[in-house]
Structures are given as C-alpha cells and as structure tokens.
Amino acid sequence: MNRKRQQINSLLAHNPTTIAVVDGQIYEVPLHQEDNTFLLINLPSHFPEEPPVITLSPTGLRHPWVEGDVVMHDALPSWQPQQSNLGFLVKEIREEFMARPPARKTNEQQNEGYNSRPPPPIPATVPSVPEYNAIAKLSPEEMEELLQNETAFDIFFETLDRVKNLKTFQEELRSGNELLAHKNLGREDQLLKLRSEVEYLDTIFKQEKLEFEKKEKIQNEAFNRFSSSTVLTRLKGGVYEQDELSEKVAQSFLEGNLDNETFVKQFREFRKVYHLRESKLERVQKDNLFVSSY
C-alpha cells in the first residue's frame, strides 16, 4: 500500500463522516449540518510529498485558523511525508471548528477580536520557508531589479515552487469540479425517470385511496346493519310481528274464516317462530349476547 493511500485511509478512519468527492483527490468532511459547513480536503498530485490544501466552505467565515477560506494550521507548513498524519490533522481541525464554529463576517464583526477563542497551535519547531531561501540566494543587484522591475518580479514569482504547486492544485481542482459536474449531469436522466415514476405512483396511490375509501364506506354500512343494537331492534320487531300474525290467525278462526286444520297448522307455525324469537330475545337481554335474527 503506497503512502498516499495510507494517508487517505487515516483520513477516513479518524473522520468517519468523510465523503469522497473525487477519490484520491478531493474529500469533504461535514462540520455543522444546520448551516451546511464543511472542510474540503484537496490532495495535490504529489501528495503526500506536498501538504494537503484544506479550505472551509461556505466562503466568508472567520476563525483564528482561517485566512481567506484556507485553513492555516501550523502543522501544514511543517508537513513531513513520513511523519505527518492526515487523519489526525483533519480530526484536530474538525474538533476545533466543532467546539468553536467559524462565524460569518459582518460589518460589525470586521474589527471584533477573538479574545474568547484559543490561538492556533504553536509548532514545536519553526519551519523553514523555501521562498526565503530562494530570495537569500539573490544578489543585491538582482533583488533591486525585482523591486524596480515589475516584469522581472512576476517572472521570479512564477518560478517559486509554492506558486507552481498552487497553480497545479488550482488546475487539478478545476478538473475535479468539472468531473463532478459531468457526473451530476450524467444523473439527470435517472432523476427525471425517478421523478416520473414517483408522479405515476402518486397518481395510482390517490386513485386506490379513493377506491379504498368507497369500499370502506360500504363495509361500514354493512357492519352497521349487523351491529348489536340493529340486530336487537330487528329481533324485537320479529317477536312483535309473529305475535301479531298468530293473533290475526286466531281472530280469523273465531270469525269462521278458517277451518280447524288450517287454523291449527298456521297458528302452530306462527307461535313456534314467536317463542323461538322470544327465547333469543330474553337470552340476549339477560346475557348481553350478540345473535342474528331467526
């Protein structure tokens, strides 16, 4: 396993919420979900020989460790490929920003100090600055030329390793952003398809919901016809009905409209049903049972 992958694994291990935007090049570490702040870890092409570039998003936030949206942790200038640990470094930055969140700059806050916040950590050793070494090699005449001649200064400035590395990093970042943009655009058809499917399923759901509500209404009406109170009322009505029918048969016999055989047959059937229903009614009222009508 090469050193770059070891550093990336350390980043992922010590910062579990890390998101690979462009694997091996750009990583995102969320800080505060409520304001959508995060660290953007950019790995140069020669990482880990070159230190990572860590920026804070969104832009325009203030904190003692931030200068122009770039995190100025003192471990970065003294970065050592063999000794420095990306995971620990990002974890320390993340914990600092979680404990003391960066604040957005306002007009009133431009001159506000950070008396309540700790200063950036002091490195154990003062790192050497390559730019100073490059300038130290110049003769007084060459330095005077740089001060007097803007073109000469620009040429010298472009030869500095840090400037060249920064330009390389900017190009890599631009390429990474383009790659990410193309990747997102490549998902457009899939998102449109999913949106269409959701709209279709939503229409089906609404139709089936209406159908369910209609059937539920019919079911409730059917249940109401067989409720305890409804059955009890119908049973009482049935008892009264059979009693009335038997009385009419008896009255018709007394008036001479029925012979003995017909009277006995009809009266016996009506009274049989009457007594059966009367028995059920008594049982329901006594034991509070639910029974269907005869």
Automatic annotation (TrEMBL):
Keyword vocabulary terms for this entry: Endosome, Protein transport, Transport
The listed locations are:
Endosome
- Is Lipid metabolism found in the keyword set? no
Alphabetical list of InterPro entries matching this protein: ESCRT_assembly_dom, Helix_hairpin_bin_sf, Mod_r, UBQ-conjugating_enzyme/RWD
Q: Which Pfam families match?
A: Mod_r
Cellular-component GO terms for this entry:
ESCRT I complex
CDD domains xref list? UEV_TSG101-like
Query: Domain VPS37 C-terminal, which positions?
Result: 209-294
Is Methyltransferase tagged as a keyword?
no
Gene3D superfamilies recorded for this chain? Helix hairpin bin, Ubiquitin Conjugating Enzyme
The segment annotated Disordered runs over 101-122
Instruction: Provide the GO biological process annotations.
Output: protein targeting to membrane; protein targeting to vacuole; ubiquitin-dependent protein catabolic process via the multivesicular body sorting pathway
PANTHER family, sorted: VACUOLAR PROTEIN SORTING-ASSOCIATED PROTEIN 37, VACUOLAR PROTEIN SORTING-ASSOCIATED PROTEIN 37A
UniProt family annotation: Belongs to the VPS37 family.
Question: What protein name does the entry list?
Answer: VPS37 C-terminal domain-containing protein
Source organism per entry reads Mucor saturninus
